[in-house]
Amino acid sequence: MLPQTDFGQVRVALGWREEFGLWLRNTPSQKNRARDQKTLEAYERDIKLMAVWYQDRYAVDFEPSQINTVNLQEYFVQFENAPKTHKRKLASVRLLIKWAMLAGELDSDPSEWIGYVDAVEEAPRDVTPDEQSRLEAAAQALEESGTLLGQRDSLILHLMLDMGLRISEAIEVKRSDLDLENGKIHVLGKGKKHRWPHVKSALANRIRAWLDRMPVALEGTLITDERGNAIDRHTAWVRFTLIAEAAGVTCTPHSMRHTFVMNYMAAYMRGDPSRFPAALKAASQETGDNEVVLLKYYTGPRESEMRAAVEAM
Fold this sequence. Notes:
By secondary structure, the protein is mainly α. Helix content is 58%, strand content 5%. The chain has 14 helices and 6 strands.
């Protein structure tokens, strides 16, 4: 039987989706880890998609009590060639199962027989210097087009490429976060971590030019649509894709963050390997990633260099 929630003198029985969502946001581990809201929404989205699959496959409404080893194995077969997706969806399902066991919907964990799919660790997907130049040229063309959204889209790209912001961080920066006089911007990043990355002068000038022209921000954000409303991650992703297509470059917004880290560390070291420890710590402060993560992902081969090596054979 699903739990009930008190509202004054009335006890309201909630559906399993609502109960799972409340539990997800109020577990002791969630309070300790302070998972980002987008992470929680990603878990819920994974479960919603699994429920849709179940309904299409078995022609009945999905309930957590119906989860078993057989249907879980059948569900995860489709992700065997996509290790990262498989890993994320399995993590989501295991959270649902944990809640279902606590709620008395399941007696045991049917996912214990579902293993993670092994894969060779991929190099960070950055862009080559030539590809970066083409992206910057495409963004410059948008600025020179004179359109409001063209100027905004160019700024979004440079916030990611010149500061290493995630796409969600770029669109959530508030005007009140700007400290251009001191060359910094306050960013509330993944895991609710506050940081104050530096702003290069060229980017600061782009921000000032946008501030002079942008609509009144109804929600206080730096990045808005033509009416002053904040934009969502999907819209920003689509607009970035248009720039990448115009430049003839295959990449994602997160490729800009990878490229920033590579470029920043090289600029900090100035060809002196002894400066690597300081460069690593500085990059950690700029991006919000801890040094272990940076060491793991950014001291090995670059995706762009691996592609160049294959072409040079």
